């Protein structure tokens, strides 16, 4: 077996890392959905932020917290902000005491994490299968004779 077969370590480890990272994200989203408080808010506008090399549009949402105080801030989310027109009602998930106390209630984050888990599983399982098939074809004939 040549040294080039060791290159399958790259998709194997990348798949394991992707599965682990996206799995933690899916678990976090699942826990968030079951423990967070649900609120109703109204979109009051949009604001652009430069999170990466391009501007990202976020919806500015106004809501009344559980303590009766009215809040308004830009809420990041997976939903395209252009689809949320001003005055539209949105659902929010509130987690008091966290760094981001309010996020948009959207199943997209959980769905994206599950897709990432499956992509990671396909990467590492495919790399493992390729190596096992290659090893099986290199075995001497007397090892697999029935």
Quickly give the structural class: alpha+beta
State the helix count: 2
Task: Identify low-pLDDT runs.
Answer: none
DSSP strand (E) fraction? Answer: 25-35%
Mean of residue pLDDT?
83
Q: Name the assembly state.
A: single chain
Give Rg in angstroms: 23 Å
Distance between the termini: 25 Å
State the share of residues found in helices, binned by percent: 25-40%
Order of helices and strands: HEEEEEH
Q: Would you count the extended β strands for me?
A: 5
Describe the SSE topology.
Blueprint: H1 9-35, E1 37-50, E2 55-64, E3 70-75, E4 89-94, E5 102-104, H2 108-138
Antiparallel strand pairs: 1-2, 1-4, 2-3, 4-5
Helix pairs in contact: 1-2
Protein name: DUF3592 domain-containing protein
Transmembrane segments: 113-136
Keywords: Membrane, Transmembrane, Transmembrane helix
């Amino acid at each position: 077996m040549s040294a080039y077969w060791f290159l399958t370590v790259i998709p194997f480890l990348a798949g394991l890392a992707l599965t682990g990272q996206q799995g933690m994200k899916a678990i976090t989203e699942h826990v968030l959905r079951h423990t967070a408080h649900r609120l109703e808010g109204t979109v009051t506008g949009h604001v652009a932020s430069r999170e990466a090399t391009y501007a990202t549009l976020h919806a500015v949402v106004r809501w009344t917290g559980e303590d009766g105080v009215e809040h308004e801030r830009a809420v990041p989310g997976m939903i395209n902000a252009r689809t949320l027109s001003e005055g539209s009602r949105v659902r929010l998930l509130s987690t008091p005491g966290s760094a981001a106390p309010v996020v948009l209630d959207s199943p997209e984050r959980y769905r994206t994490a599950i897709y990432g888990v499956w992509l990671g599983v396909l990467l590492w399982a495919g790399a493992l299968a390729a190596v096992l098939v290659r090893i099986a074809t290199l075995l001497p004939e007397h090892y697999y004779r029935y």
